[in-house]
Amino acid sequence: MKRQEPAAVSSILLETGTLLMSSGANTNRVRITMKRIAESYGYQADFLITHRAIMLTLKQDENQFYNEIKQAAHFAPNFRIVSGLSRLSWQIKEEQLSTNAVINEISRLKSLQHFPRWQVLCMVALACSSFCRLAGGNFLEMMIVFMASFTGLFVKQELGKRKVNVYMGVFLASFITTMISGGVELLHPYEHDNMAFITSILYLIPGIPLINSMMDILDGYSLNGIVRAVTGFAISFAIAAGLLIALLIYHVV
Q: Looking at the keywords, is Nucleotide-binding present (predicted)?
């Protein structure tokens, strides 16, 4: 492959790395993908990957280096981006794509439409109500969990649009979801104690940060793993706080 300009290669590497980080990839996947792309273009690359940014040193020859840093965007899980960039890195290696072609493909991946909002709301609420059923809940409790989860996620999305603090958004979503679940119980007591309370807030569980934190620690990226673990625990605390306040209001605890 004809050697590409280091500025173009650096731009691709940093754009790929920060997209992967913000879309939910663990640190080792980010490093491997960026390394594969750099080597495909004939460069030796060294990275400093943190939770918020990536610093890149691109070695052009024995005496020339190219340094750049890019901050990661706000965390928004998108596994379509993760899988798409992984496939793209293999295409670069096997098909010797030019930097212009890669930039166009990255732009296409970024422009892909997300699932419709109402579809996401319905599917998440359906998942929570399904967990309620698996835990022994009846049809009425499933309907209550669906309604509470749907409303809570809607509120969380609206707060995110308004740039409300992430942890405050999780706290309010947890509180509102639990208040809806408890309010219905006042009119019609549940057959199974606390079943709807517990399963209606499952959509808030920070699975990706906690899983990635463990993977980062096991892969040797202890700092990133600890940061992600703290993020996961902070979200968990916000969930618990919202749940606790609602339960205290209803005198459940």
A: no
Task: Report how far residue 208's alpha carbon sits from residue 29's, in angstroms, rounded to the nearest whole number.
Answer: 14
For 206, list phi and psi in degrees, rounded to 5. -80, 65
End-to-end CA distance of the chain, in Å? 67
- Residues 9-30 have pLDDT tens digits of 889 999 999 999 999 899 999 9
245: its two tokens = 């306040």
Q: Angle at Cα 146 formed by Cα 122 and Cα 132, nearest 5°?
A: 120
pLDDT at 66: 77
| DSSP for residue 72 | -
Whole-model pTM? 0.86
Task: For residue 252, give the amino acid letter.
Answer: V
What the block records as the tokens of 188 is: 């019609």
**Cα(136)–Cα(3) distance, integer angstroms:** 62
